[in-house]
Specification:
Blueprint lengths: L4 E6 L7 H20 L6 E4 L6 H13 L3 E7 L10 H6 L4 E5 L13 H6 L2 H14 L5 E4 L5 H21 L2 E5 L13 H7 L3 E5 L1 H9 L3 H14 L1 E2 L4 H21 L3 E3 L14 H8 L3 E3 L4 H13 L7 E10 L6 E5 L14 E4 L11 E4 L5 E10 L4 E11 L13 E5 L3 H11 L4 E5 L4 H11 L2 E5 L5 H19 L2
Parallel strand pairs: 1-2, 1-3, 3-4, 4-5, 6-7, 6-9, 8-13, 9-10, 16-19
Antiparallel strand pairs: 11-12, 11-18, 12-17, 13-14, 15-16, 15-18, 16-17
Helix pairs in contact: 6-12, 6-14, 8-10, 9-10, 10-11, 13-15
This protein binds manganese (II) ion (MN).
């Protein structure tokens, strides 16, 4: 992500004279340099010359569009920059925009302030002029406010930069589907052309025979080497070495297949496993931990979202991965969700040393598959899902708290994570269901609600937030209004 760049553009106009404009440029450079040096900065900020007229603004916006490394643009109006000058540039701009509303100075110099100071430090009104044209043009942008050295301002800018890099990743993301969606399931369906337009995803189908051909090419030597690696990382709680090696073969073959085609996400379907002895379990878990997005039962939307938010988390502590709301503890006031899947939970969530176990699946009619079993991590997180509402995508982001499981579950043969809903179980679950949220999610402790909002704005899709303040009646009304708004937008 560090190779991705964000242009830092300072706006002004010719009116001020050379001396002031030199200071404007110097101050802009100081801020861009500060951002680059600050800890937690995920990208590289590129200082651009001060723009003073329409032609310069349009040129720098088009340069951002054509620069493959550039994932976004920050604009700051140190002085007043009449915003009609920005119309053509902003209309041309195809990269995410962050409007940074800051100042070169933190405190007012009460003793020395004079009209020269007033003429130089005008963001308070210059950024309002810029803000108006952004709203007039209906730009879905981010506004970050505060002194640029302030930790909260930096955190907001860096979080947005991560999302911008993730959006650039999303624009080129390819998903391989081994088999189709699970028969008769509704929520895993969706408009792949709309997904390509808005989110950038290319979603390709492959017959599972294409994968079994690749599996057939894996040598015993390669399988043995990977099995040896498993033994160093995990407890092997099974005498069935062959079943584990079968998954090692799948891991090698799937990875090769994905890498050869440039795929960063994939799906499987237990209804379509011709030529495979087991449902890929351990293999999928291991690949998720290596950054490949995954969705079960042909769920390409969740697979893609998983890949995007794993990419966004580059270098951050915590975990992100595919999950399913599986079953509940409904003890009043202490309700918990048990999140898991048939097999495929990323070991990124492991709070205990994962153990490889082999158990029958009871679904799909195949051999007992090997899988990693562990207890999950704790902490604040988000469960996110993307659904096709017909004519548009809706991204739903619900704040959750991952908690320690209250008691051991010695007979449960899958990895599991447990969490609390917000603001409470009844409201959180009802809101999710009213919003049409899927049973498949991407659970993350590495991205927050604001990050999903930023990403949805960049993609120009709907975002629905469920959080500690959600009121169910207001929430239902918001969904109704959202329907009206998005139907109007879709008609454009
Ligand atoms: Mn599922």
């Amino acid at each position: 992500m560090k190779n991705k760049t964000v242009y830092f553009i300072t706006g002004s106009q010719d009116l001020y004279g050379e001396e002031t404009l030199r200071q404007v440029a110097a101050d802009g450079k100081v801020i861009a340099d500060y951002l680059n040096r600050a800890s937690g900065n995920p990208v590289t900020f590129v200082y651009k010359d001060v723009v003073k007229n329409s032609a310069q603004i349009e040129a720098v916006c088009k340069a951002a569009n054509n620069d493959g490394a550039c994932v976004g643009v920050i604009a700051w109006m140190h002085t007043f920059s009449p915003a009609k000058m920005w119309v053509h540039g902003l209309l041309a701009l195809q990269k995410p925009l962050l409007h940074l509303h800051t100042q070169a100075n933190e405190k007012l110099p009460y003793e020395s302030i004079d009209m020269d100071f007033m003429n130089l430090n005008q963001a308070a009104h210059g950024d309002r002029e810029f803000g108006f044209i952004g709203s007039r043009l209906r730009l879905r942008r981010k506004v970050a406010v505060g002194y640029y050295k302030d930790e909260t301002t930096l955190a907001e800018v860096f979080a947005w930069a991560r999302s911008a890099a993730a959006f650039a990743f999303s624009r080129t993301l390819k998903v391989a589907r081994f088999g189709d969606n699970m028969r008769s399931v509704a929520v895993t369906e969706g408009d792949k052309i709309e997904a390509h337009v808005k989110l950038g995803w290319t979603v390709d189908y492959y017959g599972v025979g294409d994968l079994t051909a690749e599996i057939g090419k894996v040598t015993a030597k390669e399988t043995d080497a990977l099995y040896a690696e498993y033994k160093t990382l995990y407890a092997i709680n099974t005498p069935d070495v062959d079943a584990v090696k079968e998954q090692a073969k799948y891991e090698i073959a799937i990875k090769r297949f994905l890498d050869a085609g440039g795929y960063k996400a994939f799906t499987t379907n237990f209804e379509d496993l011709h030529g495979l002895k087991q449902l890929p379990g351990l293999a999928v878990q291991r690949l998720m931990a290596q950054g490949y997005g995954f969705g079960g039962e042909g769920d390409w939307k969740t697979a893609a979202l998983d890949a995007v938010f794993m990419y966004r988390s580059d270098g951050l502590k915590g975990a992100t991965g595919f999950m399913e709301d599986y079953t509940y503890d409904l003890t009043a006031g202490k309700e918990l969700v048990l999140g898991a899947h048939m097999l495929e939970v990323s070991p990124a969530f492991a709070a205990t040393k994962p153990a490889i176990e082999v158990h029958p699946l009871g679904i799909g009619g195949k051999d007992a598959p090997a899988r990693l079993v562990f207890d999950g991590v704790t902490g604040d997180g988000v469960a996110a899902t993307i659904v096709d509402m017909g004519g548009r995508f809706r991204l739903i982001a619900a704040e959750i708290e991952l908690v320690k499981q209250p008691q051991p579950m010695p007979k449960l043969p899958v990895a599991r994570v447990m969490w609390k809903l917000k603001p409470d179980f009844k409201t959180g679950a009802a809101a999710w269901i009213y919003a049409g949220g899927a049973h498949h999610t991407v659970v993350t402790t590495q991205s927050g609600t604001a990050d999903f909002i930023d990403f949805a704005k960049m993609c120009d899709i709907e975002l629905v937030s469920i959080n500690g303040k959600t009121d169910i009646r207001a929430f239902e009304n918001k969904l109704l209004l959202g329907d009206a708004v998005w139907n109007i937008r879709a008609a454009r």
